[in-house]
Amino acid sequence: MNMALILKQLAGGMVVSIEIFAATLIFSLPLGLIVSFGRMSRIKPVQWITKLYISIMRGTPLMLQLMVVYYGPYYLFGMRISATYRMTAVLIGFAINYAAYFAEIYRGGIESISEGQYEAARVLGYTRPQTFFRIILPQVMKRILPSVTNEVITLVKDTSLAFVVAVPEMFTTAKQIAAAQTSMTAFVAAGIFYYVFNLVVAVVMEAIENKLNYYR
Questions:
Q1: Which among 39, 29, 57, 4 is positioned nearest to 148, based on CA atoms?
Q2: How far is Cα 191 from Cα 199, in angstroms, rounded to an integer?
Q3: How confident is the model at residue 64 (pLDDT cuts 50, 70, 90)?
Q4: 138/113 Cα distance (integer angstroms)
Q5: Measured distance CA(109)–CA(112) in Å, rounded
Q6: Which of 47, 143, 164, 198 is 20 to 30 A from 73 (CA-CA)?
Q7: Domain range for residue 130?
Q8: Domains identified in the chain, total number
Q9: 27 near 92, Cβ under 8 Å?
Q10: At 63, is the pLDDT very low, low, confident or very high (cuts 50, 70, 90)?
């Protein structure tokens, strides 16, 4: 089959993969920050709950989590599952999974900041929110960026797991084309897409990292 025709057929799946990628980052990055606050909370029940959540999300496969989010409403509450819920289930599953990883990355970055900076901010009259968002968070973002980049690159590849709830992302589309045409060409095209997508992500993240490297 002509490569141009294969790419045209893959285009819809590419859009779905990009949508999953973008929506996951939009929701999981801020959610991860909130979870990290709970993980570092002095309120023990909050700390235990967030610690358990992180442990479950990181200790079980993302594929299994997607299935639980999608089939859970039916098996637990007898709710009917519509076809439109598939994409919603994928976005929920990806967001809560990646939020757990980002939470631990945030926590490591926040705890790496010396206590002296908090004390200096108090002396200067900064409130706790001002201290965090104006002084601490910019430093944390610089320190955690390499770890965040690794997770973002992994996310690009993990979008292929949406097939488990029959969301037609690009890898699923490639499998359908390959089966119909008995050819590996669609897989090659999909592989090129994933590589180029990851390359773009890596270049963008490196540019951000260089911009934040104020020691240069």
A1: 29
A2: 12
A3: very high
A4: 11
A5: 5
A6: 47
A7: 3-212
A8: 1
A9: no
A10: very high
**Span between the terminal Cα atoms of the chain, in Å:** 51
The mean pLDDT of the chain is: 89
Token pair belonging to 132: 């965090």
Residues whose CB falls within 8 Å of the CB of residue 3, separated by 6 or more in sequence, listed in order: 185, 189
Q: Residue 72 has which token pair? A: 């859970």
What would the DSSP string read from start to end of the chain? --HHHHHHHHHHHHHHHHHHHHHHHHHHHHHHHHHHHHHT-SSHHHHHHHHHHHHHHHHS-HHHHHHHHHHHHHHHH-PPPPTTHHHHHHHHHHHHHHHHHHHHHHHHHHHTS-HHHHHHHHHTT--HHHIIIIIIHHHHHHHHHHHHHHHHHHHHHHGGGGGGGT---HHHHHHHHHHHHT-SHHHHHHHHHHHHHHHHHHHHHHHHHHHH-TT-
